[in-house]
Each structure stands twice: as C-alpha cells, then as structure tokens.
Amino acid sequence: ADCSVRAGAAAMLPPFEFAGGLVTEPFAFEKEISSDESLTLSDVRALSSKRRTLCAFRGVASDPQDAEARSAAADEYVPHLEALVARIEQIDVTADRQKRFGFVWNSPLEGLGNTFKLTDINHELGMAWMARAAAKRHEAVVAVDERPRAVVGPARHERDDERLVVIGGSVLETPPPGTTKNSSLGSSPAAPGSGLPASPGFVLGECAPAIATKLRVAAGMYKHCSTTVLPPLKKSLPGERPNELLASMADTMRLVCLAEAQAATARRAEERGAANGLLVKLHLGAHDLYARADKCLNDHVSDFNRISRKLQACILLGICTHRARAYRCAAEEAFAASDVGEAVALCDAGAAHLRRGAAAAGESERWRLAMEEETEALVSARGVYAKENEVVYFEKVPEKPAWRVPEGKVIVAEIAYSPG
Q1: Can you tell me the distance from the alpha carbon of 374 to that of 379, in angstroms, rounded to the nearest whole number?
Q2: Which residues contact 117 (CB under 8 A, 6 or more apart)?
Q3: Cross-strand bridge partners of residue 333
Q4: Is 88's pLDDT higher than 90?
Q5: Among the residues of 230-275, which ranges form H helices?
Q6: Is the Cβ–Cβ distance between 417 and 221 less than 8 Å?
Q7: CB crowding 113-126: b at 16 or more within 10 Å, else e
Q8: Which of 220, 44, 6 is nearest to 132 (CA)?
Q9: How many other C-beta atoms can be found within 10 angstroms of the C-beta atom of residue 406?
Q10: What global pTM score does this model have?
C-alpha cells in the first residue's frame, strides 16, 4: 500500500517506544571458541561480525531506515547464534572457557539503566531473540511516528443541520497529488469515511494495515520467546538478570503488541467512518488486551526485581484511554438518538477513566500531550451536548449512564513465527 503522507485527522496513543532501546556491547567469539571441522574460523568471525552490526545501533531508532536496518541485523544474527548454540557441546569450548563469555546488555523493560553481564551463551540467545522481537515492533513504532497528527482544538465540534459534526482538515504543508490544499484548517465538516474522525492522535491512513501487521509479527516473535526460547532458561538465571530473559515479560510484550495492533485497527475504522457501535467494541477490545498485559505482569510480579515504570504506565494508559474512547463513541451514539442527558453522562464517565491515567501520562512528554488532547476532545464534545441539552432538550443528566458496556471485539492475533 502507498504509505505516503495524506491529509486527514484521526486517534491513537504514541506507542511504547522504550523496548526498542535494547542495546549490547561487542563480543569476539573467535577469542573464546576454537574452530574445528564443523565450525571454521570464518564461521566464528562471521558470527562476531553479525553481532558487531547489531551492537552498532544505540538508543531508540527514530527513522524508518534505521529501524529496518536494526531489525535486519537481528534477523541475521539470531539464526547464526542458534547454529552455534546447537553445536556448542560438540566443539572445543570447555566449561571453564565458557565462563569467560561476557555478553553485556541493558534492560529497557527493567528501566533503571542497569547493564548485565551474561556468561551463559543460552542467555545470550534469549536476549538476541528478545532484541529481534523488539526491533520488529519498533519498525511499527517508527511508522506511527511518521504519520501526521490530527487537528485538535475547540473548533473540532460545530453545529450543522441540527446534528453534531466533526471538524477536521489537513495538518500537512503539502497536499496529496491531484488535490488543492485547504488554506482554512478545520473549516469543513467531516463526512463518514473521509478520514476525519472525532479523535485526536496519529492519522494512520493506508499505512494502518502494514503497521498492524508488523505489530502482529512482533507479537508472534514474543510468543516464540515466551513459549520456546525463554522457559528452559529460568532455573539457570542469576539473581540479577535483565527482565527480557523472563518468559512472563515476553508474554506481556506480546499482549502490548496485540493491543497496539488492535488500536491501529480501531483507528483506521474510525478514519473510514465506521459506526460508533463497532468502534465501541474495537476500543473495548484494545482495552481488554492492555488489561490482560497488566494481569500478566501482576500474576508474575515475583519474577522481576524491578519493572519499568514506563511499561507499567503505557499499559495503564492503554486501559484508561480505550475505555474512555468507548464511552465517547457511546456518547456520540446517544446524542444522535437525541438521548442528550445520557450523552453528557457518558462523557463524564469517560473523563473519569482518563483521570485514572493522568499520573501515568507524566512518564513521557508525548503521552502527557496525547492525554491532554484526549481530554480536550472529550470536554469539547461534552460542551456541545450540554449546551444542546440546556437550549433544546432540558433532560436530567443522570449521575451514572444507563448504557451497559458491551463485550469487546478483539480482531487481531499474533502471526506465528516460523523459521525461514
């Protein structure tokens, strides 16, 4: 699909970018592993070379080319390392010599900036696999960041023909080919399917399926880690170890990837003018996936010495914002049915969910600004409903909405990892 930037307005939290900051230091395999008939010196040096390529990437990637190169480096390194691990007992590497292995990694999912020196090559394989999954998901993170953001502000909601419409417009300097740039942003109503939904956030456009697919592929890699690569390592892990070596953390990240893929799908559905009833279920599906990630961490809290505050904040924000969005969509539906008092009450209930995530948003400036936009959009919609109620409907606003929260609809699943 053509993922060139297009005009439009639509909502998705900035994804959890910090897992992409997994880095390691070089290690020369040829210094500790003697070549033999089954493993030549060139094989060993090639392994060191591929690891050096992976080591060259520092910090969190910020552009698509860097993210793709990092992912390709991990894809190259892991199979070669797996081949070595499979033969480690057959080649001339004594137990004493293996103790001199020193693989240095950080742990973004611990989040305190610590580094860990691993002396077990199986632990190195576990970290390499988690780096591979993190690099794949970071391709999606960067792709989201490349998208324009929706117009926000009080002018988003206006009255037209006795009904609420959403005001949006291009946030770009250059219009798509064959169109004329609208010089008055926010001056024309959004029609269903126009790409101008009611939410703030990133405008995914035709890139949404590719972004969701990358996240689903990453979820499949994290599942492979949680079910195959990491469980055999647990008994051999030292007391101080990176969180990336715990199967429960890999499973948590699998669920975070799926939640973000579901969020991208809900976002695109909104951009295409899907009915509010469907949007409610999609947002609740994202909420449910984030809630499952939260439960996974809580159920296995004894696995970890420390857990990244940013990861915990990201999960809480996902729970709160998607629940709030479900209420906002239900409010729009109630307003369209002239149930205006209920619409106001639904906005108030949604705002309460956003307040639950206020402290967590402070873990990242990007999240704080995104939550401000979410709150502004909800307050703006409530203002329209309340004013309409005061002037036309005179309905009592209930303390709690009568709306019964439906079951969420999860429509994403991991793409299973298969070698080759």
Answers
A1: 9
A2: 102, 103, 104
A3: none
A4: no
A5: 247-271
A6: yes
A7: eeebebebbebbbb
A8: 220
A9: 12
A10: 0.86
Residue 374 phi/psi, 5-degree rounding, is -60, -45
* Predicted confidence band of residue 244 (pLDDT cuts 50, 70, 90): very high
**Can you tell me the distance from the alpha carbon of 246 to that of 230, in angstroms, rounded to the nearest whole number?**
6
175-189, 257-271, 288-302, 373-387: which has the minimum mean pLDDT? Answer: 175-189
Q: How far apart are CA 76 and CA 54, in angstroms?
A: 9
Name every residue whose Cβ is closer than 8 Å to that of residue 356 and which is 6 or more positions away in sequence: 316, 320
Indicate the pLDDT class of residue 226, thresholds 50, 70 and 90.
Answer: very high
| Alpha carbon distance 358, 349 (integer Å) | 15
Give 72's Cβ-side CA count (13 Å radius).
7
143 neighbors 211 (Cβ within 8 angstroms): yes
Q: Is the pLDDT of residue 154 over 60?
A: no
Inform me whether the pLDDT recorded for 36 exceeds 70: no
**Strands, E assignment, 84-185:** 103-106, 115-118, 157-160, 163-168
DSSP conformational letter for 59: S
The two tokens of residue 381 are: 């919609």
CA distance 130 to 240: 18
Q: Give the separation between CA 314 and CA 256, rounded to whole angstroms.
A: 9
Q: Give residue 280's Cα distance to chain centre.
A: 19
Beta-strand relationship, 157-160 and 188-189: unpaired
Average pLDDT over residues 293-301: 98
Q: Are 327 and 349 in contact (CB under 8 A)?
A: yes
